[in-house]
Design brief:
heterodimer, A: eight-stranded antiparallel sheet, four-stranded antiparallel sheet, 15 strands, globular, B: mainly beta, eight-stranded antiparallel sheet, about 0% helix
């Protein structure tokens, strides 16, 4: 697993975190993120929206399972114009305890291949209180293009706050000591 | 930068197969990770995992949860003959499934083996489970099997070693 790029939001915030010119030389991609948005209207959480290759075509689909410490629920979405970490566990908001960030990981296998792109997401929002949210997401981008860019932005807020960050890693399959049949 | 995750073996099926077997797994890593991107040869199938050829009736215990878009479900069992890697969700003839399976301390001989599975089929559910192989043996082989229908052409299954 090799680090491709890290994006850290500076002073003033950023409307999105973008990975561009992603090389097609790996097998899978993984993003690890730490996010806090400027959402301040209500709630201590914010969702996160993902687009591949800048595409806003209604080709994204998700199944979500989330828990809040007292109950669990499930959500289905799509076809939609974005792949969403909905149910508000993609990031913390400005109403959450100071210095807390939502965290998670996004795994995209065969991102440079010629089949539809499946996505696995684990995420949690952090808040120094009794209420917080965590969950998992199954995603699909029904597009056979290789992924060359990834856009990550808040669902309700307009900016990711300073110190939010995301790192993109490439994973390369291969042979290294074990045998496989077939 | 040295990589903490090393590719050990991979296969991309050129013809349908009921199983993919990883063998001669070196014991020099701390953990293992399987990445399974299955497609069915026809219909649907379940992905199951067995270690060292163990298919004993009570060799595995598992607790699972999944969300199918309308309800959240959880369950458990202590008498499985296999680990079901994607609880409540079958893989289909479409490329829409990704399953990751982490196997911790796989080479240790002082503990049962703990496994965490994450399964995703966007049209069916997202799921997570924790499983235990009731054995202190080091894992030297893994069989990834398809139940009901075979893995189809284009199925990709990769094994990685994770260094401490």
């Amino acid at each position: 697993m090799k680090l491709i790029q890290t994006v850290t939001v500076g002073a003033g915030g950023a409307a999105s975190i973008d990975f561009t010119s992603i090389p097609g030389t790996y097998t899978d991609l993984m993003i690890v993120y730490s996010l806090r948005s400027n959402r301040s209207a209500s709630g201590t959480t914010d969702g996160a929206l993902i687009r591949f290759n800048g595409s806003s075509a209604a080709a994204y689909q998700t199944r979500t399972l989330a828990g809040n410490g007292s109950s669990a629920n499930s959500l289905a979405d799509g076809p939609s114009s974005t792949l969403g970490i909905y149910n508000y566990f993609g990031a913390t908001s400005d109403l959450a305890t100071a210095n807390t960030f939502g965290n998670g990981s996004i795994y995209i296998p065969n991102y440079a291949g010629s089949t539809n792109k499946s996505v696995s997401i684990d995420s949690v929002n952090e808040n120094n209180a009794t209420a917080t949210l965590g969950g998992i997401v199954a995603g699909l981008w029904a597009n056979t293009s290789a992924i060359t860019s990834i856009n990550l932005r808040p669902e309700a807020g307009t900016l990711y706050n300073q110190h939010s960050s995301a790192s993109l890693y490439g994973i390369l399959k291969g042979s290294g000591g074990a045998s496989v049949t077939p | 930068m040295p990589s903490a995750m090393t590719a050990l073996a991979t296969t991309t099926l050129a013809s349908a197969s009921a199983t993919v077997t990883f063998s001669s797994i070196p014991g020099t890593y701390r953990d293992l990770r399987l990445v399974i991107v299955p497609v069915a040869s026809t219909g649907t199938g379940d992905v199951k995992i067995n270690f060292n050829g163990d298919t004993g009736a009570s060799s595995y215990a598992q607790v699972y949860m999944y969300g199918n878009g309308s309800s959240a479900v959880s369950g458990s069992a202590t008498n499985f003959a296999t680990i079901y890697a994607s609880a409540g969700a079958t893989f289909t003839t479409a490329f829409e499934t990704v399953i990751t399976t982490d196997i911790f301390d796989y080479a240790q001989t002082d503990k049962h083996k703990t496994v965490l599975c994450r399964g995703n089929v966007a049209s069916i559910n997202t799921n997570a489970s924790a499983a235990r192989w009731v054995s202190t043996s080091a894992i030297t082989s893994i069989v990834v099997g398809a139940q009901t229908n075979n893995f189809g052409v284009g199925t990709v299954i990769s094994l990685y070693g994770v260094s401490a």
